[in-house]
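Forgive a beginner's question, but might I ask you for the amino acids of a protein and the tokens describing how it folds?
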Amino acid sequence: MTNQQGLDYTARPGSTVSGHELANQISQELRLGQEVEPSQATSAQVYKASAAVVRRQMVEAWQRGQSQMVQGHTRAVGYLSAEYLLGKQLPNALLNTGLEAPFQQAMQELGFEPDDIFAAEREPGLGNGGLGRLAACYIDSLSSEGVPAFGYGIRYQYGIFEQAFDQEGRQRELADTWLEEGEPWGFENFGRARRVSFGGSVVAEGDRRTWQPDWAVKAVPVDYMVPGYASGRVNTLRLWEAKAYQEFDLATFNQSDYIGAVVPKVKAETISKVLYPEDSTPQGKELRLEQQYFFVAASLADAIATFYPGEREPDLTTLPSKICFQLNDTHPVIGIPELMRLLMDEHGYGWDEAWSITTRVFNYTCHTLLPEALEEWPAQLIAHLLPRHWEIIQEIDRRFVADLQARQVSDEQIDRMRIVTKADQPKVRMAYLATVGGSYVNGVAELHSQLLKDVTLKDFSALFPEKFTNVTNGVTPRRFVRLANPRLSALISEGLGSDAWLSDLEQLKGLEALADDPSFVDKFIEVKRANKADFVAFAQRKYGFEIDPDTMFDSMIKRLHEYKRQSLKILAVIAQYAAVKSGQVDPRSLVPRTVIFGAKAAPGYAMAKETIQLINNVARVVNNDPQVAGALSVRFPWNYNIELAEHLIPATELDEQISQAGKEASGTGNMKFALNGSLTVGTLDGANVEIRSRVGADNFFLFGMQVEDVDRLYSEGYDPRAYYEADPRLKAAIDMVASGSFSEGERSTYRNLVEDWLSKDYFMTLADFSAYMDIQSEIDEAYRDQRGWARKAIINVANSGFFSSDRAVKDYLERIWHTGPQE
């Protein structure tokens, strides 16, 4: 099928390439690009050669699509995100371009194992967790749906830190040197470099205000091609690197000031060094704001240059018809005053016209309900770093307040809604700026979107209800089922009679009837057993873990945060261990479990890092105690990333989604687990609500307080110690921690954790503990019936089709972006 511009959406870029041709191209790349004979090449060299060849296969479709996007009349999408957690690109590119089978044949001809080639790829750690993985899923789905789009972000030299654990179980942060040997996917396009300025002052020139910056950096784009699945569309992920305009001062060097000679280079390149620099210091805060403005300013300038090539005086009133920008969380919100500055100061538009353009271009996705997670920047910092933007923000705030006054809003409510707070040291509320300065605000799950309207942004939704909508998150089934779980993927295709479900995930519903087919259930059980065996081998090879494949795999993998309540899980493990040690429970009566954690804590988050230390030391004690051998073990593989997820998720049988109700925006891990045949134990929080609704209450292990219960307990006064005194299991667990059982007798090691549990416990871990222990008993009973468990798991897979990122993107297209495939 072709559209009016002739873009073929049914052909894949590599669909006409044979295995023999691909082998010849890879051989040539090895000889000419790396000066090595194929017979002498290492897996790493073959990986780089393969990536270069696959990338070239996509270039024609990529260039054609970019050209037709600019010449056509379809509104493009600009996805602005500080994070993109991409995962390994070679297997995904092979699948989406139709080169999977030819690559297998080429490797056989060249004498290499494909898995060895895939293993040689370094994973770019350009995200922290769900936010970055969601962004990666969405740019994949935009291409797969044939929608012209750019992903915009930063190419961090070191990305998120590489996590290690020391001998005491504490997290240590190391630089993630993913670029140390180069990488073959990104193309530095110096011809599209942009100037990004900082500091200085603003001067009046007649009726115009002119920003005179102190210093500037060069934003150099590194382009990554994003092929859609069987769509023929290849979009662009454009990640910016910061470089100095004068990288080396020879005069300074010749004065023997060798360090001073490279100060401008160091200052500039620091901006794109590390994802989320620790910001507990003024310098850290300033660097974070520099990062945010850097990539947004470069991206907006790039978009204008893309859609108005060579035009000295472009008609930017048409910009909203050419592209819309999605603000993925508050990190890119500084783009609103930046576009106003561009329109007024550089292109001569008046305020009203510039504001009309701006508010029709931007939309905002809120990813949190936690007040502390809604960014607020000190006005003094913005004024210092971006003085013209501070003026524009003040004027936006002044006009917004005037509008509220005209609507006869009370002074009290106006103060709650101000973009710039009234205080001796005012702050700019970035979520409020995004809400006022854009067309739509969306939450990322039904419950989250409702709480966003009812609580977090209540005043705004009451006055501007038309702005608020919901788009429940989704994940790409290509990476997280087809690539991560090929056995299950093959079984699904066998059961449904085709692989069309990969681009229409709702077709999984056809599996529901097979949940009662004994033959299909047996095959499903075999798939899970084989996946567990694979993970055992992977964990032994990667971490040195010895894991019993005949235990239940019980996993909790997510960013380490108090509201996600890893503490609840580890306290339950300790309670179980304490019951065995005290003789209350015979370990032979337990359903054998391997509890697996995966999590990173922000470098400055002391409580989260103490929790990591506790988990590691509980694992050390439990795993070395012969009394519970074969019945209970705890594993914490370090440096959780996409590679680990792709091995662990297909092997997991029980997924832990136990955040306090009303705190998790959505989650996407819960969707990946359900799609891969895990059962969920969870609260009614985030997308858990929708998962449970779709898979059925009988196939979801629900426990704990609901949002209304949490709110009531907050208002009545929460006393965590009362729960500690009331449940002997909880008391035994906390007492073990306090007594030094997991710190070699040192009672002070976890004092902060214990004191917080007993005196504060803001996220009510202790209040939900009894219900959590009770549901775990139900889980044990269900797991003893393996066929019944498998039936529940199949029903989970069959009813998870809604949670596709393709569906989520279609919702954005319909509700927010108002565009579609290339016309």
The chain has 33 helices and 22 strands. The chain has a mean pLDDT of 95.
